[in-house]
Amino acid sequence: MISIYGSSGRLAALLIFTFVSVFVLCEYVIYYPVILRCSWPHIETVNSHLPLRALFLSDTHLLGAIKGHWLDKLRREWQMERAFQTSLWLLNPEIVFILGDVFDEGKWSSSQDWEDDVRRFKRIFRHPSDTELVVLIGNHDIGFHHEMTKQKLERFEQVFNVTSARILTIKGVNFLLVNSVALHGDHCPICQRVEKELHKLSLALNCSIQGEHHYDQCKNTESFAPAAPVLLQHYPLYRVSDAMCTGVDAAPLDERYQLFRERYDVISKNASKKLLWWFKPRLILSGHTHHGCEILHENLYPEISIPSFSWRNRNNPSFILGTFSRSDIRLSKCFLPEERTVLALYCSSCLIIALITLSHIKMFRRSLHLPNRLLGKHKTL
């Protein structure tokens, strides 16, 4: 009997060890081999100018107090935290851009809920001092156009130190950051201000590229690196649908041919034409759809829609790694662990543990049954 109980104790310890190992594998370790498969695209250095390494992700959708269930929050936020922290540690980007919809309920949040959401964001996306984090505005952060208010916009801009129209220059690479929610074209006060600022930036950038600051129209304009910008915004530029999009992270077939609504799924034709005409960007990166897509506008301007970074929106989240020089761009996509892979590991492990436990219980009952039979025979004699 002592040996039976001893083997039971050893089995219990083994099962606990197995479960803990599976937990550590699924919640920590799995991110390392998956993200280690990613690498920075290579660009030849010119005149000893080292290229810029930038990481792009989108649509984190941190759940709020209204619709966010605590278990859903815990699961999704832990996945994003481990994915982000592991990516920083392994890839060491110089700058990280999040292309909007940081929060899921920013458009509804009270002041208290907003502060709680911001606190959780800063914990999940904490980063070393030598890595810059730039956050863009999305419709879930301040509301769709009809929900957008000055107060919602200003609290977002104050927390993340952003504006609705800005050119950020790093290592000679210009990034045009745009609040695409304000590109509605209906002459609302916020929209007018953003469009006016964009027009001013386009004039200054064109003057810098053409080197014409001595002209009257270029006097007193801001100077930028003489290069076409990389346009970053939440909404994609106008396209009819995702029908032309392919790849493992493209929209499902039943969604791919649904027509997009202007000013809701994509910005309007008119706003798209203005941005392309004013800035002639060498690359456009956007989010919003939660799916991946590559498209070429006017046979000149490539746009890539970045899928959601959260398991809540897709089974296979991803982000973009970009290597930039003044004259060249190289991009690669990095996929995160799939949620169904992690669930399959948990389910198969639990099944194996349950089978081993049931088998041991059956053996234990047999071992108890044998002495009882012997005692019964002894009494009969």
TrEMBL record:
One Pfam family cited in the UniProt record for this chain: Metallophos
Listed GO MF terms: metal ion binding; phosphoric diester hydrolase activity
- Entry's SUPFAM superfamilies? Metallo-dependent phosphatases (SSF56300)
Reported cofactor(s): Mn(2+)
Q: How does it sit in the membrane?
A: Multi-pass membrane protein
CDD domains annotated for this entry?
A: MPP_MPPE1
Q: Keywords for this entry?
A: ER-Golgi transport, GPI-anchor biosynthesis, Hydrolase, Manganese, Membrane, Metal-binding, Transmembrane, Transmembrane helix, Transport
Q: Name its GO BP terms in alphabetical order.
A: endoplasmic reticulum to Golgi vesicle-mediated transport; GPI anchor biosynthetic process
Q: One GO cellular component from the entry?
A: endomembrane system
Q: Which Gene3D superfamilies match?
A: 3.60.21.10
Task: Give the residue spans that cross the bilayer.
Answer: 12-34, 343-361
Domain Calcineurin-like phosphoesterase residues, every copy:
53-291
Q: Which InterPro entries match?
A: Calcineurin-like_PHP, Metallo-depent_PP-like, MPP_MPPE1, PGAP5/Cdc1/Ted1
Cellular compartments annotated? Endoplasmic reticulum-Golgi intermediate compartment membrane
* Predominant localisation class: endoplasmic reticulum
The UniProt similarity line reads:
Belongs to the metallophosphoesterase superfamily. MPPE1 family.
Function, as annotated, reads: Metallophosphoesterase that catalyzes the removal of a side-chain ethanolamine-phosphate (EtNP) from the second mannose of the GPI-anchor protein intermediate. Participates in the glycan remodeling steps of GPI-anchor maturation to allow an efficient transport of GPI-anchor proteins from the endoplasmic reticulum to the Golgi.
* Protein name (record): Metallophosphoesterase 1
Q: By which gene is this protein encoded?
A: mppe1
